[in-house]
């Protein structure tokens, strides 16, 4: 096109008559492609591309130039002449237009991700110019993909974190948008749905993938779905598989406290993600000079007891900076390192703080009675650089002193008489300064570990009957059964004490439902515990949930409550919903228990309205979560309905979504979000109208629920909707939202 120009005061000017802009309506589905149309009289070519939106309609708006920009005074109006879905078709079906004298018009076309063309007539009032209709082509909006991938399969489990998965891909025609790839969602037994990990496979055309995002030593759940950039498709069926042990994650905490001038007392916490059964820890250290880190050295011996969470690192240089590294271990190997940097003390001893000691009998190779003494240094003051132990027969006057222990946190006292008692004392040392502990009375009798632990019967989700080979009943007082789950550490194990049990069997009723429970048994004699048995795993089925996590109740008018809660910390299975009960309180007495009807059968719902109550009356409101097994533990709160008259409600809001109506007609679910900070109101109703019309239609008042359905809508048209909170004669309207039926 040739564009003429004219000169004014030495500058080049272009005369622009108008610009046609095609843009998406608010709250619409995404558009693809570029589209624009321009009408000009004389002037520079101007283009305005369409932006992305969310609708199945298009809004076309004409923006005339300012009068100062050109010498005519006319304004352009729009008229849609025709549209067609097939760009190759020669036929242009007529398209009736609403008031064409507006400078914008809206078009609704019931297509999903299809090419279509528009023929637009721009009419200039009071002008001799009438351009030819302008042609524009684009792509219709995307929608939710229709199909789910089929036959999701575990092809190969490579290691503790990696698995090869395959599936049957969806058909391109079901994507209803540009193919962007697949998303894989994975979680474990101990994780909730909101904690699931999502892996995006962009432009992934192979229906197979090697993933390294799984959790070791766990039951991993997986599903896959396609996405088109705007919407995720329906998920595939869920598969699950158990991964083997892996290397641990990093330890949870590490600290190092100087001991004298050449050692550290190191403490740590076990990893949050052991990824298996811990077998111990390896400790390394490196001297640090400026920014240089010297050769790494391993502490000898390694820690081979996973319950140990402290150690002494000795034989270091005074006044020197060190990097201290700890790695947890499983049978799969060392885990992720965790390190800190600390400096040893300069030369100069001082009096140690008062130490403590722990003791327990142990079994030595020689079979003689022996006691293991563990040093607990005083970390609040000076712990000292090392220690030694002195002991004597109980009632004797003279102590026998052992050699100083320079490298470890324990020592073993051998050659004792198992039929006698001993007095033992630990002394912390820092150069010439010494501080003794309190004297402990010790009985060197060794207890054996129970053997052949097994499960006899799984009774229910929390109870199992177990058995074992008992130890010599003459040396024990009873047994302790310890149990914990994958999400807990064995240090925090639950414990059941069984006294005078010589049968070698017991009922364990502290198991966690819907979990892998670790169980072991040990003997005790009243003075100390013996070594534990081997650990067995008991997998439990679903159980009833624990109590919900929180509950709040807010009065709504004089005869209702708005109830909100949080899901249980221990769902003990897959939640299926909630049951709500209530009782009237009269003094110290409770009336008959009533249940709110209907039940909450969507576990994602965490609020409800409890209506038809008496005014100025105290109630007990009870909420129970439920699984397929039944109702869980109750959680209740007591509140009183209002006695005063109605007041203006606070301004409400609402959310909406498409629903599948049984009759197949377009329907929208409107969910009331009352203003609970002020007065929420007692109930609500909905007003709606066709976009551009003046009169609202109203639904019936909704007295018992927090939602209502708008039915019988025209899928080709746009609506304006608002919600109205009511309290007596007072009403408060929400903001108006524009709604399109676009499932």
TrEMBL record:
CDD domains: FN3. Pfam families: fn3. Keywords: Repeat. One of its GO terms (cellular component) is membrane. The keyword Mitochondrion does not apply. Residues 148-246, 247-350, 449-543, 544-647 form the Fibronectin type-III domain. The keyword Secreted does not apply. SUPFAM superfamilies: Fibronectin type III. InterPro entries: FN3_dom, FN3_sf, Ig-like_fold, RTP_Phos/Ushers. This is Fibronectin type-III domain-containing protein.
């Amino acid at each position: 096109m040739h564009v003429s120009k004219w000169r004014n005061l030495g500058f080049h000017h272009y005369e622009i008559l108008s610009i046609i802009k095609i843009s998406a309506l608010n709250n619409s589905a995404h558009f693809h492609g570029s589209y624009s149309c321009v009408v000009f009289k004389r002037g520079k070519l101007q283009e305005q591309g369409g932006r992305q939106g969310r609708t199945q309609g298009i809004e076309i708006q004409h923006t005339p130039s300012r009068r100062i920009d050109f010498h005519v005074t006319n304004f352009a109006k729009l008229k849609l002449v025709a549209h067609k879905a097939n760009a190759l078709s020669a036929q242009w079906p007529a398209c009736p237009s609403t008031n064409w004298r507006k400078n914008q018009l809206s078009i609704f076309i019931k297509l999903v991700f299809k090419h279509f063309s528009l023929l637009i007539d721009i009419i200039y009032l009071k002008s001799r110019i009438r351009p030819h209709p302008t042609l524009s082509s684009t792509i219709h909006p995307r929608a939710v993909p229709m199909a789910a991938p089929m036959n999701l399969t575990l092809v190969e489990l490579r290691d503790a974190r990696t698995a090869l998965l395959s599936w049957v891909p969806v058909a391109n025609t079901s994507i209803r948008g540009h193919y962007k790839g697949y998303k894989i969602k994975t979680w474990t037994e101990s994780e909730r749905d909101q904690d699931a990990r999502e892996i995006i496979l962009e432009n992934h055309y192979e229906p197979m993938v090697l993933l390294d995002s799984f959790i070791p030593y766990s039951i991993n759940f997986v599903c896959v779905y396609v996405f088109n950039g705007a919407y995720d498709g329906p998920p595939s069926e869920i598969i699950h598989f158990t991964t083997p042990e892996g290397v641990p994650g990093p330890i949870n905490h590490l600290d190092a406290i100087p001991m004298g001038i050449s050692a550290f007392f190191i403490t740590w916490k076990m990893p949050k993600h052991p990824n298996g059964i811990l077998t111990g820890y390896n400790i390394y250290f490196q001297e640090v000079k400026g920014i240089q880190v010297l050769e790494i050295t391993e502490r000898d011996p390694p820690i081979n007891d996973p319950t140990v969470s402290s150690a002494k690192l000795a034989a270091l240089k005074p006044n020197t900076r060190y990097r201290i590294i700890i790695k947890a271990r499983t049978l799969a190997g060392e885990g992720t390192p965790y390190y800190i940097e600390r400096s040893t003390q300069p030369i100069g001893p001082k009096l140690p703080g008062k130490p403590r000691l722990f003791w327990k009998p142990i079994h030595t190779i020689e079979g003689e009675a022996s006691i293991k003494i563990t040093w607990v240094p005083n970390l609040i003051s000076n712990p000292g650089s090392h220690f030694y132990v002195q002991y004597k027969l109980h009632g004797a006057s003279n102590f026998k002193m052992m050699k100083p222990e320079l490298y470890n946190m324990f020592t073993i006292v051998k050659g004792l008489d198992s039929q006698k008692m001993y007095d033992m004392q630990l002394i912390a040392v820092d150069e010439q300064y010494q501080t003794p502990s309190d004297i402990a009375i010790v009985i060197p009798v060794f207890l054996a570990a129970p053997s052949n632990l097994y499960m006899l019967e799984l009774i229910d989700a929390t109870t199992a009957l177990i058995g074992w080979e008992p130890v010599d009943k003459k040396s024990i007082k009873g047994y302790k059964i310890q149990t914990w789950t994958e999400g807990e550490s064995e240090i925090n194990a639950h414990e059941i004490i069984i006294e005078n049990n010589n049968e070698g069997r017991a009922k364990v009723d502290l198991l966690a439902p819907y979990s892998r429970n670790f169980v072991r048994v040990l003997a005790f004699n009243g003075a100390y515990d013996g070594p534990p048995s081997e650990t067995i795993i008991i997998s439990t089925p679903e159980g009833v949930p624990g109590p919900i996590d929180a509950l709040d109740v807010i009065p709504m008018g004089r005869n209702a409550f708005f109830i909100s809660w949080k899901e249980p910390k221990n769902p003990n299975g897959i939640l299926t919903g909630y049951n709500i009960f209530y009782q009237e309180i009269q003094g110290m007495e409770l009336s008959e228990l009533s249940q709110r009807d209907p039940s909450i059968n969507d576990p994602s719902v965490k609020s409800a309205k409890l209506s038809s109550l008496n005014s100025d009356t105290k109630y007990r409101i009870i909420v129970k979560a439920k699984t397929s097994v039944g109702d869980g533990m109750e959680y209740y709160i007591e509140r009183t309905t209002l006695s005063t008259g109605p007041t203006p409600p606070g301004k409400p809001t609402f959310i909406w979504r498409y629903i599948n109506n049984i009759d197949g007609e377009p329907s929208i679910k409107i969910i009331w979000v009352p203003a609970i900070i002020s007065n929420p109101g007692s109930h609500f109703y909905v007003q709606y109208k066709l976009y551009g019309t003046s009169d609202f239609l109203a639904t019936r008042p909704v007295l018992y629920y927090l939602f209502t359905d708008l039915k019988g809508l025209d899928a080709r048209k746009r609506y304006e909707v608002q919600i109205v909170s009511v309290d007596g004669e007072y009403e408060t309207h929400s903001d108006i939202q524009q709604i399109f039926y676009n499932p």
